[in-house]
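Dear colleague,

Thank you for sharing your sequence with our group. We've completed the structure prediction you requested, and as agreed, I am returning the results in plain text so they can be pasted directly into your records. Please verify that the sequence below matches your submission; if there's any discrepancy, let me know and we will rerun it promptly.
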Amino acid sequence: MASTTDRDPRHHTQKMQKALNDIRAHLREDIEKVDEPQLKARFETSAEVLGGLEKAFKAYEQRNEKAWR
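Please find the predicted structure tokens below.
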């Protein structure tokens, strides 16, 4: 049986936000470590996409999107 924490959606959204943030930070760090411009661009784009996903989870937690009104 799932614990109360496991049933709380915020527990899961916060874990996902942390994981996405960690990967985003790693991508940004690696931009400085590679020389290939195409890979740098791919890392930057990926970091931006992950930032958008973080925002989506945060908006879900805050229920401040138009769909929640």
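Summary note from our side: Residues 14-60 form one domain.

Kind regards,
the structure core
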